[in-house]
Amino acid sequence: MPEPRVLTFREALREAMVEEMERDPSIFLMGEEVGHYNGAYKVSEGMLARFGEKRVIDTPIAETGFAGVGIGAAMVGLRPIIEFMTWNFSLVAADQLINNAAKLRYMSNGQFTLPIVFRGPGGAAHALAAQHSQALESLYAHVPGLKVVTPSTPADAKGLLKAAIRDDNPVVFIESEVMYALKGDVPAGEHVVPLGVADVKRPGRDVTLVAWSKMVHTALKAADVLTGEGIEAEVVDLRTLRPLDERAVLASVARTHRCVVVQEGWPFAGVAAELIALVAREGFDDLDAPPERVTNLDVPMPYARNLENVVLPSPERVVATVRRVLGLTEAPRRPAVAGRGR
Amino acid sequence: MDATLLLGLYRQMALCRRFEEAAAKAYSQGKVSGFLHLYVGQEAVAVGAISAAEPTDYVVATYREHAHYLARTGDARGAMAELFGKASGCSGGRGGSMHLFDAAHRMLGGWAIVGGHVPIAAGVAFASKYRDEKDVTLCFFGDGTANMGAFHEGLALAGLWKLPVVFICENNQYAMGTPLYRTLSVEDVAVRARGYPMESEIVNGDDVLEVREAVRHAVNRARRENLPIFIEAKTYRFRGHSVADPATYRSKEELRKWMERDPIRMLADRIQTLGIATEEQLGALDDEVKAQVQDAVEFAERTPAPEPDTVGEHVYA
Q1: pLDDT at residue B1 greater than cutoff 80
Q2: Number of folded domains in chain A?
Q3: What is the span of the domain harbouring residue A205?
Q4: How high is the mean pLDDT of chain A?
């Protein structure tokens, strides 16, 4: 086994890209500020110097254009990594991702493969307001033909990105601005985490907390608090939303008999709803309480810090929900939801 | 003038025309479903352009792409079976009229969101340049594309990165049911290429030889100099936007005027004037084409629909 070193999340991502690009000349990185600026969030720092302008390509602000260029290049055999400065900006290229990348293989009856990774930070950072704070993984996970990857640790970031780059399908790879400086052990060299395999980040017997990306850390903090109350929460990190490791979720719920999904992003028609449907359908006999979810409130993100804190899932909300699921508090207190009954 | 070339072009254009006439008939009989966008009247553009390229050059087209597929592959059976929704279709019955693909012949679709394929074509050309291959990409689109953001972003990147792609605007005067003068702030789509910057040329899209010559020149330059070139072919759609559109928004007089410039008729006249073939000989060629189309229809009718249990195949590699 390769020796682990402590790397930041962004260094781990960079290491994955560098190693893969050294292995395979058909891989290139393209996006806004990835080259001379060294990356808007310094993920690609030093890569231009290492690989040159042919393979680390600065683009104009034209997401539809460069996402489409990536798809065209992938159609004929290159393996592009397309960086969105944030996933919020991917929405102007949604036609490329949803109408083109996700559909090509199917509507050509399997004549084309599309080995392309779209990556960048998603979710809320700090006080960036409504247009820069969206967790869009539920939207992309809705679409057959796309894979959706959401790492939570530096080691997973490296291993999953390497797997995503080697995958022959379009992969939506969502990082997090507020995790880029997160440090952790990362194996050197060949460390590949297969897509579609969840990971138990903390074992527990009393309740299953299902989370991904940044929310894994929210769930872990909640689990620490719950330990103080004698409640052992198991934290299942999905790592990829598509393909979804249904077995890992159901196996955990079979052990704990209770399930709370922690999701950044809006509740309506989100991945958490999908997971609850899964657990209700396949794990019904294992359940001792209705499965619950903790999500963003159903509002656009406000700018004010105090309001933002209200909107985002917090360890406190997770703890409160777990107490309810365990029957330690009274009937569900629903969070304020806008747009309902108005 | 090369007799083989002219007769070959005539045959290809006739194949496109007869194929679409048969497709429209099958549609009216309920054998073809969905949207069916006919290219009747515009055949000189696809046939002239694709004949000017090497078979290894890439073709990226829109949802009005029967002719491009036929000009590139000659495969009437695969196309007709696709329209019929059969497993034997060129996209296995998963694409339909708007999504004709043939990877082996570098026919890369078949894209049905206006403008979305323009950056993709630029990306195919990007790959050619990246690998130092000398293939050129032909990107076809209509005049209605000229106001889409994706069109402009695709041209902007092709211009910025000097990608070997020939953009071919099939200006058929109408963006669906709305005439150009109500949708476009400029007279010619070609002027839009200048800012990217890209050389452009306007050609008579009803003259297959003029299209061919312009595209041949553009493809050679794109290949030699690694740069994009823009060609606007002025033409006319004899039918509605799709077969469901009776095209009542245009006058009979206008249609009659354009039909006098029927590209197939014009080429036939030229062939006869040059003494390459008689009307009877062209008629015989046409009969041959009709037989090929009839064979394609029979093939499409007799081959099976996709197996229901294959519906989940090819979502992922």
Answers
A1: no
A2: 2
A3: 199-325
A4: 96
CATH topology classification for B3-304: Rossmann fold (3.40.50)
Q: Tokens 């190693």 map to which residue?
A: A19
Q: Kindly state whether residues A160 and A11 are assigned to the same domain.
A: yes
| Residue A340 domain-assigned (yes or no) | no
β-sheet with B165-171: strand ranges across:
B101-102, B107-110, B58-61, B137-142, B165-171, B229-234, B199-204
Closest to B108 measured CA to CA, from B49, B54, B61: B61
Same domain, A165 and A145: yes
B138 CB neighbours in chain A (<8 A) are: none
Calculate mean pLDDT across residues A296-321. Answer: 98
**What is the interface pTM, i.e. ipTM, of the complex?**
0.97
Residue contact A73–B117, C-beta within 8 A: no
pLDDT at residue A342, rounded to an integer: 34
If you average pLDDT over residues B33-54, what whole number do you get?
97
Q: CA of A169: how far to CAs of A116, A156, A242, B60, in Å?
A: 6, 19, 11, 21
**Taking CA atoms, what residue in B is nearest to A64?**
B150
How far apart are the CA of B229 and the nearest CA of chain A, in angstroms? 17
How close, in Å, is residue B122 to chain A by CA atoms? 6
CA distance A187 to A158: 9
Return the pLDDT at A333.
55
- pLDDT over 90 percentage in chain B: 99
DSSP-assigned beta bridge partners for residue A208: A234, A259
> Which single residue is written with the structure tokens 């209509």?
B142
